[in-house]
Amino acid sequence: MDYTIKIGGEAGQGIQTIGDTLAVVFAKSGYHVFSHQDYESRIRGGHNFYQIRLSDRVISCSRDKVDIVVALDKESIARYEQSLTEYGQIIYDSQSIKEKHEGNRFLDVPFVDLAIRHGGNKIMANTVATGAVLGMLGMDIEVLLDILKETFKKKGDAVIKANVDSAIAGYDFAVKNCLRCSFAPAEVSGSKMLIAGNDAIGFGAVASGLKFYSAYPMTPGTSIMLYVASKAKEYGIVVEQAEDEIAAINMALGASFAGVRAMTGTSGGGFALMVEGLSLAAITETPVVIAIAQRPGPATGLPTKTAQADLLFALYSAHGEFPRVIFAPGSPEECFFLTNKAFDLAEKYQIPAIILTDQYLADSQWTYDGFDLSRLVYKDYRIRGEEAKDLKNYKRHLLTEDGVSPFAVPGDGNYVVVTDSDEHDEDGHITEDIGLSIKMVQKRLHKKLPNIIKEINPPKFYGDTNPEIVLVGWGSMYGLLKESVDILKENHKIAMLHFSEIYPFASLEKFDYLSVLKNSKKAICIEQNVTSQLARLIACEIGFRFDYKINKYDGRPFTLETLLGEINAIIR
Fold first, then answer.
1. Residue 330 and residue 496 in contact, taking contact as beta carbons nearer than 8 Å
2. Assigned architecture for domain 458-571
């Protein structure tokens, strides 16, 4: 069983309401779910869609072919009719779109009329549509009814009844009238957790002891702040919407200097404003975690679309030379655990840690049985409490063997914490001494970096143990690469290398991924940018140059079939 449903229409028509509700229904019913969205940078009008794939096996990307299209406008019919599978159906309301379509591919469902008759208000039309999809699939409607009762319990019995009756009306209409529907949902059991990439980053931050989050809203990074804000009261987190990104990073640095775990988030354009603060974090050795949710640029670019064009920007931005950690998770589960690791390494080595995601991963939803919380790492590396009271002759930037200085909290003991954005001595006071400045650069970079490298895991290897074809990617490419390997392995000796802990590069002693690349007949680097940034970085770091590259840079993610076509063209 492997079905895809696409809800299309204009912004403001409730596309996300239908999509989110169906995704939750499928997850609570025990199915594996993958969803992604495409939306324009406008409040009303334009054309958006929400695509959901559900299966009885693990899935991790979107497909081209669609089994059910919920068309809320005329354009959805014109755009997606050719994408239907052999027995695919388009459901629509002919009265709403003022257009009638004949043929066995169309099911005219009077969304608005059923909503008024059974719910008393046309606003229930989306609930009718949701029920109709479940009726077409032949799925149990009880899960949806339970969700509606829980969602509207604060609005009273009348609102609950109106929604329940509307959902049942849509369900019954589809069961009676979709004579061509031949969908057969597999029998599954249990319930699954449904989570999006950005929510998983927020979840990972909260689970890592986050106490301060500051940001200026910028798509597609804003939903991290929204998630953290939803947990702020429960977990004692201060969330501050700053006036701009410069203020956001400096607020986070101030909070971190004061003794709490702090984070900021943005997109590429916002990070451009943060880079001076990034250097400030480096020279003052103040830990901070920065999430960058990528979108196409330059400038405003395509503000609601996806890209992987900020890798080298994140790595080489800010002035001066200093270590940083860059993670690019490939799934919500990696978003959760790599955010936890980003906090741990930022605090342990007193450095900035950057998490790179993008619109595709940020908004896409995946299902899991749950996250293994025993894998979380939390250690407070700061000097506090009784230890702080006995602290004497404290030097904030003390020169040490490993480059990591004692990390005390201002005001927590009988000592003074001093630091400066100018080069400084061990006490934190400004210096222009040549010998001391050399020692400070070496302390921050050469002494810390070897130990940081030991913490970095090599790229994930999946597939044939002696592959002739190796697919290489990073970040949100993970699910696409994995499913591509699963399909192509029937006829080829193929594997994938997925980089999620991107910088610094992991030691080859842990896993010799360079030999995997060198021993393959065809190594293909697949990225959503025009300049093959990971391929360039791999050439710089380990000396391997790719002969084959696949690039996509139109702001839309790969689908499985599109990527398979590109890979097969290279194989042939």
1. no
2. 3-Layer(aba) Sandwich (3.40)
